[in-house]
Design a protein that fits this description.
Length: 338
């Protein structure tokens, strides 16, 4: 009997507890009802620099407006509509908060570098030509000399490297609407682009523009013909200390490039490109030879400018250990080429 009363008592207690927990659902967040929450989609995503995406926020029990915040705006920004923009590579957390519900939700955003296909001319290519110190420490920006397709304004080769249109118009255009020598292709005004054989690549790759740091960069191009020469015992030598006075007066001032050109023209006219004993003349001096007059510019130091290194320090053989497999130390190597 006592056992019966004990079981009845326990049953009554459980019923009382059950009834105490029953009752109508109260307003959200009160009397144990569920609080509002925000669903943010997507909750994780990846963006490239410059790319945009939109986060969508929904509150569980209502429609409301949201405020948005990025944990690092140097990585990703977010506007009042939840639109994200990748700024720089990194990781950031974007928060959406309900104006009425005060609830919040988070999304993690990873920003990566733009793919090559996403690179733009204005953002990634043009700064190479419009920024000082880009090619080497102390280098002038290319647009210091090439800033207009009008040579009357003082722009070298009437070339404008400061705009997309200028790059497409090329070098030495006859006027500001007619294409000149193409920088990227082979045919003026056409899109037969061939970077490996382009004029611009040749200038950059060969360090002609900009000139290497060892050779003084002169905006007036006055040292472009190489050093002045003087005649010693019937053969040409570099005048020391170095002088550069032949620019614009090449017919009267003997210079390194003029001498080499005279040898090349004589070799061409002679009909035998392998003739290393060919005599040629330059500026009234006859009986000049490759070995006595030309070879010095490739095998001797302190030639092109004070303390310049010999060309053969880098180009010494027609094998893979020599830059471009080029041998500038012999007549045969020069004729064989690069």
């Amino acid at each position: 009997m006592k056992r019966m009363f004990l079981l009845l008592g326990l049953s009554a207690l459980m019923l009382t507890l059950y009834l105490a927990c029953e009752g109508p659902e109260g307003p959200p967040g009160e009397q144990g009802a569920s609080a509002p929450y925000i669903i943010l989609e997507p909750s994780t995503l990846k963006l490239m620099v410059g790319e945009t995406a939109t986060l969508n926020a929904t509150t569980s029990d209502r429609q409301e407006n949201y405020t948005w915040e990025s944990s690092d705006e140097a990585v990703v920004t977010v506007d009042a509509s939840g639109v994200l923009t990748g700024v720089s590579p990194g990781l950031a957390v974007v928060t959406a908060r309900g104006v009425d519900s005060k609830a919040s939700a988070f999304a993690t955003v990873t920003v990566t570098e733009a793919l090559a296909s996403e690179i733009s001319f204005s953002q990634h290519i043009l700064p190479m030509f419009t920024t000082n110190n880009f090619w080497f420490p102390g280098s002038d920006k290319c647009t210091s000399c090439h800033f207009s397709n009008n040579e009357d304004e003082g722009s070298k080769h009437a070339m404008d490297l400061g705009s997309y249109q200028g790059h497409m118009l090329g070098a030495d255009p006859p006027d500001q609407s007619t294409p000149g020598h193409p920088l990227y292709g082979q045919t003026p005004g056409q899109t037969d682009f061939d970077w490996d054989n382009s004029l611009l690549r040749a200038r950059l790759r060969n360090n002609r523009m900009p000139q290497q740091p060892g050779w003084e960069f002169r905006r007036d191009e006055s040292n472009r013909n190489g050093p002045d020469l003087e005649l010693v015992n019937g053969h040409w030598q570099v005048k020391k200390p170095h002088q550069y006075t032949s620019w614009g007066n090449e017919d009267n001032v003997p210079n390194a490039l003029g001498l080499i050109q005279a040898w090349v023209e004589a070799l061409k006219a002679g009909g035998d490109i392998q003739d290393s004993t060919l005599y040629f003349s330059y500026m009234g001096a006859d009986s000049l030879t490759f070995f006595d007059d030309v070879q010095q510019f490739f095998i001797e130091g302190d030639t092109w400018f004070p303390n310049s290194q010999p060309c053969v320090e880098c180009h010494f053989a027609n094998n893979e250990f020599s830059y471009h497999e080029m041998n500038l130390g012999t007549f045969a190597g020069i004729i064989l080429g690069a």
